[in-house]
Design brief:
Largest sheet: 2 strands, antiparallel
Radius of gyration: 12 Å
Structural class: mainly alpha
CATH superfamily: lambda repressor-like DNA-binding domains
Distance between the termini: 5 Å
Number of strands: 2
Strand order of the largest sheet: 1-2
Shape: globular
Number of domains: 1
Order of helices and strands: HHHHEE
CATH architecture: Orthogonal Bundle
Helix content: 40-55%
Length: 69
């Protein structure tokens, strides 16, 4: 699935999806996470990874895409 198609299915703008994809987001709404998981048929653990705050300056959480879409 292309990023453009995911953006349309989830109802999130391309710039906002890019922020999530590149790990620059400081937060993600549960409704957005739910929509992404539904569109990709993933579980949250498939795309989220916990990072220790001491190792990640921007945010204690990073979104990591383990599968290509």
């Amino acid at each position: 699935m292309s990023v453009t198609e995911l953006s349309a299915r989830v109802g999130i703008t391309m710039p906002n999806l890019s922020v999530l994809k590149n790990g620059k987001a400081k937060a993600v709404r549960f409704s957005t996470l739910n929509a992404i998981c539904n569109a990709l048929e993933y579980q949250p653990g498939d795309i989220l990874e916990f990072k220790n705050e001491e190792k990640v300056e921007e945010s204690p959480f990073a979104i990591c895409y383990h599968k290509t879409y």
